């Protein structure tokens, strides 16, 4: 059955390539016109969809509740209205055509502030956005939004970064949704920043993708558009042996930090092993080094229950101050001329 799925995805990928050859140029021109005064790079290649490990093969349902022991160590100071008593507050913002999102602005927020775009993993995703993303006892507890709301986020995160965390309400994850929908959400954020609709500011050239589980697989796909400055890939789920050559070319010369635990029972650590090996190889071939970091843990540092053991890297990475120091080194998007593959005519 899984082989059939891979074949269907391959057919879909070929169809996307053919479609891009005919309409890609017009799409790119339109997107550039909508992003005047930014340096977003709209390439005419399609998104490269990556088949990730089937949830059915793991014995775990993405719609099942996950009790995260780490949450028990968080100081629960929520009032009855769901707001934290003495922590920075996340605001709820919404693009009516794509996603609702939690938004955070640091002190002295301005147009040069880097933005972290957080892509959560799979779950029921059928609750209030604040309950699922921000509550330290919620479905996606332990990721950046819940650390901010509970007052447990690293200081260098709170002081230096704007954050947007869209919510895939009604879908098991972003993997079940259109990738162009996320890109449209990014366009909306760029166009509406520093307004009543989106009262935060950020540098469009310093958008960093942070993806966990299914969100990590989607983040790698989005990075191939070259519209993002860097990526943090936690518990990656792509099950293919080799990424398409076009994908690897577009992932070269991008700062990427990969996290995985060897005892991950959901997505095998070999998924990340292969990703890192291929990224290092393509960067070395192009005379670049040091673009990829890999934090590979021998066992689950969060000590999650056996049915999800090791599938915790989004939690581990979110609370790591060193990660945000690394993000601050990201300055601008790779220029288009650095791509070895020519754009289609």
TrEMBL record:
Residues 1-16 form the signal peptide. One of its GO terms (molecular function) is hydrolase activity. Keywords: Signal. It holds the Pfam family Abhydrolase_2. Transmembrane segments: none annotated. Residues 202-285 form the Phospholipase/carboxylesterase/thioesterase domain. It comes from the Eukaryota. This is Phospholipase/carboxylesterase. It comes from Nitzschia inconspicua.
């Amino acid at each position: 059955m899984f082989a059939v799925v891979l074949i269907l995805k391959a057919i879909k990928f070929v169809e996307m390539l053919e479609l891009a050859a005919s309409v890609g140029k017009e799409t790119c021109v339109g997107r550039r016109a909508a992003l005047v005064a930014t340096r977003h790079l709209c390439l005419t290649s399609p998104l490269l969809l990556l088949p990730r490990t089937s949830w059915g093969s793991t014995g775990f349902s993405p719609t099942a509740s996950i009790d995260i022991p780490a949450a028990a160590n968080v100081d629960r100071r929520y009032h009855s209205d769901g707001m934290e008593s003495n922590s920075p507050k996340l605001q709820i913002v919404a693009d009516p055509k794509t996603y609702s999102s939690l938004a955070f602005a640091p002190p002295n927020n301005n147009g040069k502030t880097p933005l972290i775009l957080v892509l959560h993993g799979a779950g029921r995703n059928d609750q209030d956005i604040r309950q699922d993303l921000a509550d330290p006892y919620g479905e996606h507890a332990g990721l950046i939004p819940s650390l901010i709301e509970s007052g447990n986020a690293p200081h260098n995160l709170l002081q230096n970064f704007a954050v947007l965390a869209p919510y895939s309400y009604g879908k098991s994850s972003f993997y079940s949704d259109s990738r162009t929908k996320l890109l449209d959400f990014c366009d909306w954020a760029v166009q509406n920043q520093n307004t009543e609709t989106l009262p935060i500011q950020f540098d469009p050239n310093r958008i960093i993708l942070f993806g966990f589980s299914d969100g990590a697989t989607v983040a790698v796909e989005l990075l191939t558009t070259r519209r993002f400055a860097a990526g943090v890939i936690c518990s990656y789920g792509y099950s293919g042996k080799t990424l398409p050559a076009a994908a690897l070319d577009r992932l070269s010369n991008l700062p990427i930090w990969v996290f995985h635990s060897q005892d991950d029972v959901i997505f095998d650590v070999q998924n990340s092993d292969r990703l890192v090996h291929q990224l290092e190889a393509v960067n070395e071939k192009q005379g670049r080094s040091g673009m990829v970091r890999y934090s590979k843990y021998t066992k689950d540092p969060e000590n999650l229950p056996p049915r999800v053991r090791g599938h915790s890297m989004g939690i581990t990475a979110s609370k790591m101050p060193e990660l945000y120091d690394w993000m601050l080194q990201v300055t601008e998007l790779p220029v288009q001329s650095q791509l070895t593959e020519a754009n289609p005519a």
